[in-house]
Design goal:
The chain is of the alpha/beta class. The chain has one domain: 3-Layer(aba) Sandwich (Rossmann fold), CATH 3.40.50. Helix content is about 35%, strand content about 20%. The strands form four sheets. The protein has a six-stranded parallel β-sheet with strand order 2-1-3-4-6-10, with helices on both faces. Strands 5-12 form a two-stranded parallel ribbon. Helix 1 links the parallel strand 1 and strand 2. Helix 1 crosses helix 5, helix 2 packs parallel to helix 3 and helix 4 crosses helix 6. The longest helix is centred in the first third of the chain and has 21 residues. About 40% of the residues are buried.
């Protein structure tokens, strides 16, 4: 199976290529950058579109870039894929299309009735790209959209990397009983393999690891891996969660997918 993965040096693209080639020898995979020019897609069975503008601080100056890269580029790439006879188009979207940050006051649980309500240019541009893809989708051109939560793994960028850096300098950390949905990079890669292998008819995917994660526990385990002990303070946890602030909600709020949403392929994608 000939597969093209966009994002020549991105974390997800690089790991996905390595995973698919190592685990399954029937793939012929190319990693390419698509920002400057679209490649020839003739002969490809599938396109996995991971390239995006992400982890960038949003400003008035870069607002248009989010739409040019995350929305317009996706539309042009998908249209070319369809015109070239590509059968499957897998798009890496985000849990952020729901516009939820979590809350320390109330649990935020996303289920199949939750409506999309993106709040950032990143999330808005991703949802717009999804809508473009829906217009192209038909029985000959299958579109699969993966709305992933935080993706983590060795040397990953983004929110998990920031948490690791913070963990390594804080021997005392608030003890808070929150829950977060997260997804290991290996589980994401295996999900993509199963979509390709089974020629899936599913349109939307909401993957997550088998268990929810707790921020305080994560920090403790990260420090433990680095040979450092951690004091988790219940008093400090009660103190920080008194504040109704976005940064506190983002760090310590509960934000999860309902587990029933994530039972794709009987959970066979959960290999890590």
């Amino acid at each position: 199976m000939k597969v093209l993965i966009t994002g020549s040096s991105g974390y997800i693209a690089t790991n996905m290529k390595q995973w698919l080639e190592k685990q399954h020898n029937n793939y012929e995979i190319s990693n390419v950058s698509v920002r400057d020019t679209l490649p020839d897609l003739s002969g490809y069975h599938a396109v996995i579109h991971t390239a995006a503008l992400v982890h960038a601080k949003e400003t008035n100056e870069n607002k248009q870039q989010f739409y040019e890269i995350n929305s317009d580029l996706t539309q042009r790439l998908a249209q070319k894929a369809k015109d070239s006879g590509v059968k499957q188009f897998i798009f890496l979207s985000t849990m952020a299309v729901y516009g939820k940050c979590g809350s320390v006051k109330n649990e935020t649980i996303i289920n199949k009735k939750t409506k999309e309500d993106p709040q950032t240019n990143y999330a808005k541009s991703k949802l717009l790209a999804e809508q473009y893809l829906e217009e192209l989708r038909d029985e000959y051109f299958k579109v699969h959209i993966i709305r992933s939560p935080v993706i983590y793994g060795e040397n990953c960028p983004g929110n998990y990397a920031r948490l690791k850096r913070l963990a390594n300098i804080l021997p005392i950390f608030p003890k808070v009983q929150n829950k977060r949905s997260m997804l290991h990079i290996s589980n994401l890669c295996q999900l993509v393999h199963l979509i390709l292998k089974n020629n899936s008819e599913e349109r939307l995917f909401f993957p997550q690891d088998r268990d929810y994660y707790n921020t305080s526990f994560l920090v403790k385990e990260i420090r433990k891996k680095n040979g450092k002990q951690t004091l988790l303070s219940k008093t400090l946890g009660e103190f920080v969660t008194r504040f109704d602030m976005p940064i506190i909600d983002k760090a310590f709020g509960t934000l999860v997918y309902d587990k029933k949403m994530s039972e794709h392929f009987n959970n066979k994608y959960l290999v890590h």
